[in-house]
Amino acid sequence: MLTLNLAAAPVWIDLMPGVRVHLRPMCNAFLLRAQSQPGVLAAIEAEDREAHSVAQAAAVFEAAVIEWEGVGDRDGAVIPPSPAAIAALMDMYKPYSAFLEQYFHPWLVVDAEKNGSAPSLNGTSAAAQSIAVPATQSVKTARGTKTRRRA
User: Fold this and answer.
1) In Å, what is the CA distance from 8 to each residue of 5, 59, 107, 129?
2) DSSP tag of 123
3) Within 13 A of 25's CA, how many CA atoms are on the CB side?
4) 71, 92 in Cβ contact below 8 A?
5) DSSP labels for 13-41?
6) Closest CA to 24 of 15, 11, 5, 7
7) Most exposed: 15, 59, 88, 120, by fewest CB within 10 Å?
């Protein structure tokens, strides 16, 4: 079943102890905007998957962030979100990982659901009840050998 977030309101997520961010609801526009950012395009051109992931997350983060708490400069002064500060924050593993886990990946899971069809056991198509009647006789194959009916 496709799960929709109909109460699309900004959310607060904790990136690490003492650091939290207020984010707009995730949407396709953020991802599309991210794909056109210079850092993302350079990573794609260089075929650098890791750099692409970080650049894409930073671009989505930049589009989504409203405000944050617990982020400061070297002197301990609170700083507002800016492209440079966001890039520095996304270069840190723990905030980057928390952002992906709590905000970005749940959206990707919903996007991957696509429709309400359950996969079949072998994973090749939507599951459905078989309506084919089993064969009752052996037949010749294109090579002329007989095949046996499978029970």
Assistant:
1) 6, 20, 12, 37
2) S
3) 7
4) no
5) EEEETTEEEEEPPP-HHHHHHHHTSHHHH
6) 11
7) 120
At 122 the pLDDT is: 53
Out of 47-56, 63-72, 109-118, 139-148, least confident range = 109-118
Q: Quote the tokens at residue 141.
A: 């194959």
d(CA 72, CA 62): 17
Across 42-63, average pLDDT: 89
C-alpha span between 38 and 98 (Å, rounded): 24
Of the candidates 57, 60, 71, the one whose C-alpha atom is nearest the C-alpha of residue 25 is 60
C-alpha distances in angstroms, 101 versus 13, 26, 68, 73? 10, 13, 18, 25
Give backbone dihedrals phi and psi of 7, rounded to 5 degrees, phi first. -95, 55
Q: CA 22, CA 73: separation in Å to the nearest integer?
A: 19
